[in-house]
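[Discussion] Sanity-checking designs against the backbone

I'm trying to build intuition for which residues belong where. Below is a structure token string of 120 positions. I'd appreciate it if someone posts a full sequence so I can compare it with mine line by line.
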């Protein structure tokens, strides 16, 4: 088990920025690829970004490429998602995930999510 707790969500105007953070406890954090997913109201959960166990590789959904940046600190067991130039369509519950399955979408553990609301 890898308990994950997200933080940093909130309300922001379009064009603004937010930084989400995910803290992991238990397990061996540096063994897991880490990812962010999101689920908008009435829609299925979708992939946002993934970072490899070492931080040396990242992968983004086309919808966020160039605006969002995923990073991790294996000394602190945290993974962050810096979100810039936010759009109303970025409004969703954002979930942190950890996995050792296939790159880049294979996740085994999930946090409870943090809500991001982008107003127009």
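Best answer:
Here's mine. Compare freely.
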């Amino acid at each position: 088990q890898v308990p994950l707790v997200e933080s940093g969500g909130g309300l922001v105007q379009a064009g603004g920025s937010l930084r989400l953070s995910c803290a992991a406890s238990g397990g061996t954090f540096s063994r897991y690829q880490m990812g962010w997913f999101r689920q908008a109201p009435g829609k299925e959960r979708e992939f946002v970004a993934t970072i490899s166990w070492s931080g040396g590789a990242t992968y983004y959904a086309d919808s966020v490429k160039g605006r969002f940046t995923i990073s991790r600190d294996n000394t602190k067991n945290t993974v962050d998602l810096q979100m810039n130039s936010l759009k109303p369509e970025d409004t969703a519950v954002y979930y942190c995930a950890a996995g050792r399955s296939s790159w880049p979408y294979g996740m085994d553990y999930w946090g409870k999510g943090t809500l991001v609301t982008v107003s127009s």
